[in-house]
Every structure is written in structure tokens, then in C-alpha cells.
């Protein structure tokens, strides 16, 4: 999913916007609160469990799973360790380079990167098709982009999820239905996201669940530096084709 979503609006702007589209001001205020908390973080870590519906010959639609441990220090340090259907991969970003290490093959790529995390995520996706799941929540245009992209933004209510009460916000346009569950506590952190792609055959679904949030942990700088294991080979990374970049 493209970067969709984060900026705090005044209540008057929210109400004015609600007159032009089906937008619930309370839902937007909840999204803004979540975004403000994330925007104030100096560092964080969390675990993200995802599932995706994908077409796989000869079976048709199948579900793929992955789990990632994410560590970030703003604005220019990130480590992601992902395990799942595509094997075990690690991503190290130190403000200058992004290293992608493929544990199963014992090879890695080194890519010159922009000087901050968000520009790096955008660049790696547009040029190489590298995905960083659920990165949307960290963009400073989160709420703004939601209101631009979706025709309907609704507060469904509250639901019990993973041992806590969560606000349930639903967004919809002709191509997509997205739902976000946000903890109803002092921090208002994202707990879960589900996206349905209405414009794709079979209406595939993507689901992401956040766990083990740690806010402003002290993370040693050494963890963001990659040291090639013995025998590891450096390989070139393929640039994404123009046709895939339009998806």
C-alpha cells in the first residue's frame, strides 16, 4: 500500500472538512492523537506481525505471513529483522547506506541512501521495490493523507483487542477499505491495521499487528552498523521496472 497517512488539524478545520465528505471529526482527532505521540518519539522498537493474500500458481490466492522486529532512532537510524515466507532478511540503515542482508543466501546489498529514515523508505520503495511494512504511521502527513485519499473516515466504536480497549477507525474509497485499531489509553498507539484491496481480483487483504512497543529506549549505535558474516557475498540490487513502479 502506498504511503497513505499524519498532521494535527484544528477542530474548526476538521468540522469544515466533514461538511464536504463523510468524515467523522472524532475519528480524525483520534488519528491525530496517535500521530502526535509517534511524532514526539526520539526512538522506539516494536514487533510487527503481518499476513498478505497473494496469487501463487497453481493454487490461486494464498496467505503469506511474516514477523519483523523494528528498531529506530530518529532521524537516521533503523534496523529491521524480518522472518517469514520469503526467508530471513535484515535491513541496517545508518544515515548513509541501507544494507539488505539475505540470511538464507549469505549475501547482501549496499545502497547509498538519503539522510533520514522516511526519505530512505520512499527512495528504496520507488527505486527498488523494497517494502517496509506499516511504515505509513511514521509519516508527518498521516492524517492529511488519509483525508485526501479516502472518501469516508468513520469511528466504528471501541473493541477489545490484545488485552486492551481500542478505538476502531474505518476508512473507505472505491479502491480500498482500511481499518485501524488504536489503543484507548494514554499513548494511543496503533495496535492493528487491516486493508482490503477492492480493485484487485479476489479482494486480497493485508493485515498488520503491532506488539511489544517500547518508547524512547536507549539503543546502542552499534546495532545499526552491518558487519558482513564470514563468506558473505556483496551482490547488486535490481532497479524496479517502470511498469512495477506504477502499481
Q: In the CATH hierarchy, what is the class?
A: Mainly Beta
Low-confidence stretches: 1-20, 243-247
Fourth CATH level, the homologous superfamily: Lipoprotein localisation LolA/LolB/LppX
Q: Count the beta strands.
A: 13
Order of helices and strands: HEHEEEEEEHHEEEEEEH
Based on Cα principal axes, name the global outline: globular
Distance between the termini: 9 Å
Specify Rg, calculated over alpha carbons: 19 Å
Task: Give an overview of the whole structure.
With 247 residues, the protein is an alpha+beta fold. It has a single domain, classed as Clam (outer membrane lipoprotein receptor (LolB), chain A). 20% of the residues lie in helices and 43% in strands. The chain has five helices and 13 strands. A hairpin with a 3-residue loop joins β9 and β10. The longest helix is centred in the first third of the chain and has 15 residues. The protein is globular, with a radius of gyration of 19 Å.
Blueprint (SSEs and pairs):
Layout: H1 11-20, E1 22-23, H2 25-39, E2 43-56, E3 60-73, E4 77-84, E5 87-93, E6 97-102, E7 107-112, H3 117-128, H4 142-149, E8 152-161, E9 164-172, E10 176-183, E11 190-197, E12 205-215, E13 233-234, H5 242-245
Parallel strand pairs: 1-8, 7-13
Antiparallel strand pairs: 2-3, 2-12, 3-4, 4-5, 5-6, 6-7, 8-9, 9-10, 10-11, 11-12
Tags for this model:
247 residues, alpha+beta, outer membrane lipoprotein receptor (LolB), chain A, 13-stranded mixed sheet, 5 helices, 20% helix, 43% strand, disordered N terminus, disordered C terminus
Amino acid at each position: 500500500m502506498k504511503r497513505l497517512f499524519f498532521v494535527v488539524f484544528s477542530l474548526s478545520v476538521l468540522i469544515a472538512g466533514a461538511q464536504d465528505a463523510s468524515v467523522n471529526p472524532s475519528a480524525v482527532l483520534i488519528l491525530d492523537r496517535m500521530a502526535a505521540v509517534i511524532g514526539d518519539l526520539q526512538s522506539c522498537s516494536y514487533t510487527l506481525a503481518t499476513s498478505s493474500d497473494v496469487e501463487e500458481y497453481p493454487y490461486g490466492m494464498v496467505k503469506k505471513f511474516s514477523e519483523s522486529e523494528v528498531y529506530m532512532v530518529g532521524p537516521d537510524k533503523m534496523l529491521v529483522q524480518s522472518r517469514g515466507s520469503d526467508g530471513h532478511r535484515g535491513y541496517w540503515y545508518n544515515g548513509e547506506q541501507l544494507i539488505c542482508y539475505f540470511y538464507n543466501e549469505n549475501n547482501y546489498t549496499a545502497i547509498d541512501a538519503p539522510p533520514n529514515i522516511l526519505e530512505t523508505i520512499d527512495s528504496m520503495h520507488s527505486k527498488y521495490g523494497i517494502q517496509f511494512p506499516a511504515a505509513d504511521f511514521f509519516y508527518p502527513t498521516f492524517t492529511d493523507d488519509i483525508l485526501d485519499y479516502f472518501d469516508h473516515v468513520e469511528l466504528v466504536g471501541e473493541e477489545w483487542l490484545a488485552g486492551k480497549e481500542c478505538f476502531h477507525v474505518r476508512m473507505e474509497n472505491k479502491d480500498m477499505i482500511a481499518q485501524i485499531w488504536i489503543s484507548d489509553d494514554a499513548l494511543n498507539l496503533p495496535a492493528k491495521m487491516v486493508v482490503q484491496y477492492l480493485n484487485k481480483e479476489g479482494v486480497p487483504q493485508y493485515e498488520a499487528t503491532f506488539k511489544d512497543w517500547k518508547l524512547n529506549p536507549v539503543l546502542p549505535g552499534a546495532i545499526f552498523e552491518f558487519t558482513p558474516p564470514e563468506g558473505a557475498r556483496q551482490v547488486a540490487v535490481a532497479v524496479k521496472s517502470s511498469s512495477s513502479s506504477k502499481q
